[in-house]
Specification:
Blueprint lengths: L8 H9 L4 H11 L4 H7 L5 H13 L3 E5 L7 E5 L1 H4 L2 H11 L18 H7 L10 E7 L2 E8 L2 E6 L7 E4 L2 H8 L14 E4 L1 H7 L12
Parallel strand pairs: 3-6
Antiparallel strand pairs: 1-2, 3-4, 4-5, 6-7
Protein name: Transcriptional regulator
Pfam family, one: HxlR
Keywords: DNA-binding, Transcription, Transcription regulation
């Protein structure tokens, strides 16, 4: 492990997590929970398999990640964050908030994974009608599908399809982010390439009631 050789907590933290890909591995494990090596590879497009293996070994040595043997029928090694590693969750969240204005720099070649919507969902969406029955909203962005569950004042995201969802929101990732952040009115969504089928009331229930203090989203 390379070191800045500085007696400073910021420098010492970067000695551990400052290498390329390390914090993105933490992001994946926070979003997915315990994960197979192949799941991590899928969630980290562009990483070489030997580099991922190296980073996981370094993170294990630093006490951020541990391995566990999953029981049948999975019967494979899973990687999970330790308590120390999970403590980076607030760092990932604040880094994500800081980076939101940079999301205007969307390029068609940029990769996207459904679990990456977990932070925007937590940042922007809320259950504004907690006394109403639970609902689910399916989101389809490119070839990725996730489900937003809304119940009792809580909003959460899970991977996979939701065939019984009250509504389905389909569109390009940057447009969905613009909608979720409150910077695109629901009534204008279709004009910007977002298709909503099912209950628009279910979608309106979670959208911000005012524009967010961010600029130049695509």
């Amino acid at each position: 492990m390379r070191s800045y050789n500085q007696y400073c907590s910021v420098a010492k933290a970067l000695d551990v997590v400052g290498d390329r890909w390390t914090l993105l591995i933490v992001r994946e494990l926070l979003a997915r929970g315990p994960s197979r090596y192949t799941d991590l590879r899928s969630g980290l497009p562009g990483i070489a398999t030997n580099l991922l293996a190296d980073r996981l070994r370094e993170m294990e040595a630093a006490g951020l990640v541990e391995r566990e043997d999953a029981p049948p029928p999975i019967a494979t090694t899973l990687f999970r964050l330790t308590e120390r590693g999970a403590g980076l969750g607030s760092v990932i969240s604040e880094l994500g908030r800081w980076g939101v204005p940079l999301m205007s720099e969307y390029r068609p070649q940029d990769a996207f994974r459904g679990q990456w919507l977990r932070l925007p969902v937590r940042m922007f969406l809320a259950d504004h009608e907690p006394d109403r029955p639970p609902v689910s909203i399916q989101v389809v962005a490119e070839d990725q599908t996730v489900v937003i569950d809304v119940a009792g004042g809580q909003v959460s995201l899970r991977l996979g399809a939701g065939p019984d969802a009250a509504a389905t929101v389909t569109g390009p990732p940057p447009r969905i982010l613009t909608l979720f952040s409150g910077n695109l009115p629901l009534a204008e969504a279709a004009e910007h390439g977002i298709q909503i089928t099912g209950s628009q009331e279910a979608v309106r229930r979670v959208l911000p009631r005012s524009r967010q203090a961010i600029s130049k989203l695509p």
